[in-house]
Amino acid sequence: MGARAGHSRPLVFRTFVALAGLLLVTACASGGSGAAPSARRNRDLITTDEIQRSSAGNAFDLVQTLRPNWLYTRGEHSISDGSQGIDVVIVYLDNARLGGAQTLRQVPVQTVTSLQYFDAKAATYRWGNGHTHGAILVSTAPLR
Prior knowledge:
This protein is 36% helix and 19% strand. It folds into 2 domains: 36 residues; 100 residues, TonB-dependent receptor, plug domain (Ferric Hydroxamate Uptake Protein, Chain A, domain 1, Beta Complex). By secondary structure, the chain is α+β, with helices and mostly antiparallel strands.
């Protein structure tokens, strides 16, 4: 019985080494470019760090520079329907409806803490019907 216990240790050790190696390979493969998960850019969020690094003067210019796809609907239509001049994306400022995408020009970037894009489904769930092309939520610093 003592001989069997001695032979099982190398097997346990080899199994441990194999599992550790597999774990290491999996961890390296999931890292991709080696960037930390927090360093990856969220395509639906503009963070405070990104805002501070930007030279934009208003929220519209910020979005146009960092996430221009938020300002375009699927296909060839932009934020405004050229024939009717109607903004198609809806903007909310601290959860209060502000208007169409052009209203982002009224928001000085110095007051903004983050911007988040909601697709049509998420915007409809959060604010109700009428968000066919999504919504942008602008969050600002609370007044002191």
